[in-house]
Amino acid sequence: MAFRILIVDDSPVMRAFIRRIMLVSGIEAAEFLEASDGREALGMLRQQWVDVVLTDINMPGMDGEQFVRCLEADDLLRSVPVVVVSTDATEGRMHQMLSLGARGYVKKPFLPETLREELERVLGEAYA
Amino acid sequence: MINLVVGVADCQVSNQREDVLVTYALGSCIAVAIHDPVAGVGGLLHYMLPESAISPAKAGENPYMFADTGIPLLFRRSYECGADKRRLVVRVAGGAQVMDPEGVFNIGKRNYLALRKILWKAGVLLQGEDVGGNLSRTVRLEVGSGRFWLRGPGSLEKELAPPAPKGASPWHSGS
Amino acid sequence: MLENHWEQMLSTAAEQVLETMFFAAVYGPAPEGEPADAPRFAARLGFEGTPSGILTIGVSRPAAHTLAANFLAVDGEDGLTDAQVGGVVCELANMICGALLSHVEGEEHFRLSSPELLPDAAPAACQHHQSLDLGDGTLDLWLAVENHAA
């Protein structure tokens, strides 16, 4: 199965880091889409399906919190699994994003294996 | 069962099912265990120091002394025995601060960071690790099963990260 | 917050980020006498919450190139542009700031600004400063905290 993954982060180098983790984790023929904020990501999601979204929180323009709220408010988009990848390591923020609809949360800094395992868990639950 | 002992600054690779690769007294040193479950190839490296630049002459004599010369050679030898990089299960142990409890030189941590950098640049992720702390470790890798065991001084042996069942990962489409 | 608490938190946060995502060791405090005008990459970002403030970092050019090569998984001889290295230094600042604030007591959601590259580091006045030895260069961290209690 070829996964289509949307990476949302205002840092191009962080998007590259995450993309590399996905590639070396063994995804075959994965397609990567990238957006630098929530608004751009929403535009992409309204045009094509993705299998999973990885999103930062602190971004100029539409931030990750607002982005996840918009996804949850959309009848179709709320079913897309979202994993938050953020420098905000507080328990309060994590619980907030999970209650808004995110399926997973990885705190920066993280080992590559940590992101791989969280993605495997979320995708395993979503597409089992 | 045949025990192949891997000494300090040493490496063994085998494709014989009955072989068990074992290395003792990992203090600040690190053991890198790799296994291809399809090809039935296993390899174990025991290295001492992070970078060969401090002594290229020594690295020339024994590349297994350093992470940056030993790890690539471990992988190359496994490929020569039929292993495939995409199938390799990689686990590591060691990197303790046994003779440097104040952390002044941090050789164990530097060995670990060197390993992390090399594997990241090579596009390899770990399936398990048991590193750090203050105690020495002994490890063994069963070539036939791919099971990886480790033990501290005076403690019971425990298995590290058993191989995942085939097909469990959502990544792989049946390979 | 005690004066020396911020300094220790800066070092801890930087070390955590450098080891986890840049595979780089901190060898301790930087040796005295690092030239103030030594070429380096610098980045700054602000944070809002309780407290608010600004974090600025400066990384010696050779060390910045090493960190960027590690992060982007390229070998030294492949070459990296200044834009790529600058992007990595910005992300380093972002993550150090986040790691620092995660140790501040309370459940406050901090809002971080986007990091920006600077032509030079060394803020004119700064309450807290740490200088760390990365082996092939120095990482300087300057932290200004608003409503700072003496």
Notable characteristics:
heterotrimer, A: alpha/beta, Rossmann fold, 5-stranded parallel β-sheet, 5 helices, globular, B: 175 residues, alpha+beta, 5-stranded mixed β-sheet, 3 helices, disordered C terminus
3D structure, described in words:
Chain A is α/β, with parallel strands linked by helices. Chain A has one domain (4-126): Rossmann fold (3-Layer(aba) Sandwich), CATH 3.40.50.2300. Chain A is 44% helix and 18% strand. Chain A is built from five helices and five strands. Chain A has helices at 12-24, 38-45, 64-73, 91-100, 112-126; strands at residues 4-8, 31-35, 52-55, 82-86, 104-107. In chain A, strands 2-1-3-4-5 form a five-stranded parallel β-sheet, with helices on both faces. In chain A, helix 3 links the parallel strand 3 and strand 4 (82-86). The radius of gyration of chain A is 13 Å and the shape is globular. Chain A starts with a strand and ends with a helix. The model of chain A has no long low-confidence stretch (mean pLDDT 93). With 175 residues, chain B is α+β, with helices and mostly antiparallel strands. Chain B has a single domain (2-159), classed as 60s Ribosomal Protein L30, Chain: A (2-Layer Sandwich). Chain B has helices spanning 56-61, 67-80, 107-122; strands at residues 2-6, 10-14, 19-26, 30-36, 41-47, 89-94, 128-131, 137-142, 148-151, 158-159. A five-stranded mixed β-sheet of chain B has the order 1-3-8-9-10, with no helix packed on it. Chain B is globular, with a radius of gyration of 15 Å. The two termini of chain B are 29 Å apart. The model of chain B is unreliable at 165-175 (pLDDT under 50). Chain C has 150 residues and is an alpha+beta fold. Chain C has a single domain (3-27, 39-145), classed as CheC-like (Chemotaxis protein chec). Chain C has three helices and six strands; from the N terminus they run αββααββββ. Chain C has helices spanning 3-21, 61-72, 82-101; strands at 40-48, 53-60, 111-112, 116-118, 128-133, 138-145. Chain C is globular. Chain A binds chain C through residues 10-14, 16-17, 20, 58-60, 86-93, 96, 107-111, and chain C through 16-17, 20-21, 68, 71-73, 84, 87-88, 90-91, 94-95, 97-99, 102, 107-112, 114.
